[in-house]
Every structure is written in structure tokens, then in C-alpha cells.
């Protein structure tokens, strides 16, 4: 195992938390991330003047001082308990504790399709008024990877190919993905993002199951 893969495995931890404790932490830290998320478009759009911005920054500095008093010194990783309650709370796309994560929830249909309705605020802008192409790739990487996992072939992204068919607006969007087939350790997955005027980005991905044993979390809860 390489050092990098070793680090992935080390952050894959059964922390033995009770369901009550997980619920307590979700109720405590989820709203904190929501508040920070709400700040991002405000930083882009506020018209506040010198005094208000200075005051707001003092409040934020005080909040950062409070929050920084005790903290972990490593990324969140993947945590789970004996019930198979998996948590990826630091995940960039759907982490409950991650303020940049645009997805609240990924839904799983019985036929293996995974999908999410989500909202991209102005902090995700690329071309004027539209979604940054890298953000579409970010969301599709997660959706396609989750479809591979749900289909029983969890893996790292080997190749992700995108076709940007038309500009993706900001705002309310839909994304979905489905496992097409597997070949050995490779899972071939397709998906897309659509907006009010149809499909904007199509994706094909190859997800490769690492050599080391992976607990895939299939048929288990995976909370944001
Ligand atoms: C303990 C925890 C473990 C967790 C594991 C994941 C579980 C996921 C669960 C839930 C997912 C939820 C959703 C997540 C979504 C987000 C995912 C990301 O963002 S992942 C970050 C970006 N991706 C990387 O950083 C990969 C970096 N690359 C690598 O680590 C390796 O290159 C890896 C694992 C992709 C392949 O390495 P090899 O050593 O296993 O590959 P070789 O043995 O050489 O090849 C195996 C087969 O795959 C093909 N292959 C190899 N690399 C390929 C590639 N890049 N694209 C296409 N095919 C490739 C080869 O041609 C070969 O095919 P032939 O068996 O001969 O037919």
C-alpha cells in the first residue's frame, strides 16, 4: 500500500459512537456548517459599508477564536459505528460539517439510480451567472462514485469524462447517476446534471476498487 492509500485506510475508522451521540453531534455541528455556508454568498453579494464590514469581521474573528480553542488536527475521514452508520461529514460534496458541500442528501432508488436535487449559490459561479465547470465535475464525481458504491463496486475515481452540453445555470439543479457495468475491479458509471432547460453536463466515470479490502457500506446508512 502506498503512503497515500495508507492514509486513506487510517482515516477509515470505527469510532464506536452511539446513535444518540451521533444525533447530538449532527444537531450541534450541522447548523454551524449551515451558518458558514450562508456566509459564502453574503461575502460575494453584501453591499455593507466600511463600518459594518469591519464590525462583521470582528464578530467572525471572535467566532473563529471560540471554535478554534479545541479542534482535531486531521481531516474527518470516514467514520462508522457497529450499526454501520457511516459518516463522511468532511466530504466536499455532501459533508454535514462542510460549509462548501452543496448536496444535503443523495437518494438511492431500488433500480440502482442515485440522484440529488440541489441548489448552487453564487459562490459556485464560473462563467457569468452560471455554474463553474469544475463544480459540476465535483458533484458528478460524487454522484457517480456513490452509484458505483451502491452497485456493490466502491472505488476511487480512475477516469472522469465530462461533456458540457450547454451552460449550467446557478440555482436549483438535479443530478443523477447509475452503474452500467463492471469489469473486474472497474465500475463503469454514467450520469448527468440537468437544470430547468434540460441536461447540461453528461458524465462517464471509471471507478476502481483498490487492492486493499474496502468496506463498501452497501445497504447501510451513509449520513452526510
Ligand atoms: C479504506 C478506505 C478505502 C476507500 C476507497 C474508496 C471507497 C469509495 C466509497 C464510496 C465512494 C463515495 C463517492 C466517492 C466519490 C469521490 C471519489 C474520489 O474523488 S476519489 C479521488 C480521485 N481519485 C484518485 O485519487 C485515484 C488515484 N489513483 C489511484 O489511487 C490508482 O491509480 C487507482 C486505485 C485508481 C488504480 O490503481 P491500481 O493499482 O488499483 O490500478 P491497476 O492495478 O494498475 O489497474 C487496475 C485496472 O484499472 C485500469 N486503470 C488503472 N488506472 C486507471 C484509470 N485512471 N482510469 C481507467 N482505468 C484505469 C487498469 O488498466 C487495469 O485494468 P485491467 O484490469 O488491466 O483491465
From TrEMBL:
The EC number(s) this enzyme carries: 3.1.2.2
Places the protein is found: Cell projection, Ruffle membrane; Cytoplasm; Membrane
Recorded catalytic activity of this chain's protein: (5Z,8Z,11Z,14Z)-eicosatetraenoyl-CoA + H2O = (5Z,8Z,11Z,14Z)-eicosatetraenoate + CoA + H(+); tetradecanoyl-CoA + H2O = tetradecanoate + CoA + H(+); (9Z)-octadecenoyl-CoA + H2O = (9Z)-octadecenoate + CoA + H(+); decanoyl-CoA + H2O = decanoate + CoA + H(+)
GO cellular component labels: cytoplasm; membrane
Residue runs in coiled coils: none
Gene Ontology MF term list: hydrolase activity
CDD domains: PaaI_thioesterase (cd03443)
Sequence ranges assigned to domain Thioesterase in this UniProt record: 129-193
Listed PANTHER family: ACYL-COENZYME A THIOESTERASE THEM4
Family listed: Belongs to the THEM4/THEM5 thioesterase family.
Listed name of the protein: Acyl-coenzyme A thioesterase THEM4
Top-level taxonomy: Bacteria, Bacillati, Actinomycetota, Actinomycetes, Mycobacteriales
Amino acid at each position: 500500500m502506498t503512503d497515500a492509500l495508507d492514509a486513506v485506510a487510517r482515516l477509515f475508522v470505527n469510532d464506536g459512537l452511539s446513535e444518540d451521540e451521533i444525533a447530538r453531534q449532527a444537531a450541534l455541528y450541522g447548523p454551524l456548517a449551515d451558518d458558514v455556508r450562508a456566509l459564502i454568498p453574503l461575502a460575494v453579494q453584501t453591499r455593507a459599508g466600511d463600518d459594518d464590514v469591519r464590525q462583521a469581521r470582528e464578530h467572525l474573528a471572535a467566532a473563529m477564536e471560540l471554535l478554534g480553542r479545541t479542534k482535531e488536527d486531521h481531516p474527518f475521514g470516514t467514520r462508522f459505528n457497529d450499526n454501520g452508520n457511516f459518516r463522511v461529514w468532511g466530504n466536499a460534496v455532501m459533508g454535514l460539517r462542510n460549509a462548501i458541500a452543496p448536496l444535503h442528501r443523495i437518494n438511492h432508488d431500488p433500480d440502482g439510480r442515485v440522484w440529488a436535487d440541489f441548489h448552487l449559490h453564487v459562490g459556485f459561479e464560473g462563467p457569468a451567472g452560471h455554474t463553474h465547470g469544475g463544480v459540476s465535475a465535483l458533484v458528478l464525481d460524487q454522484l457517480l462514485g456513490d452509484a458505483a458504491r451502491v452497485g456493490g463496486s466502491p472505488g476511487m475515481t480512475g477516469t472522469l469524462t465530462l461533456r458540457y452540453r450547454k451552460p449550467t445555470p446557478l440555482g436549483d439543479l438535479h443530478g443523477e447517476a447509475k452503474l452500467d457495468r463492471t469489469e473486474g475491479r472497474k465500475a463503469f458509471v454514467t450520469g448527468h446534471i440537468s437544470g430547468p432547460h434540460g441536461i447540461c453536463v453528461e458524465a462517464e466515470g471509471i471507478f476502481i476498487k483498490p487492492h486493499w479490502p474496502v468496506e463498501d457500506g452497501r445497504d447501510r446508512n451513509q449520513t452526510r
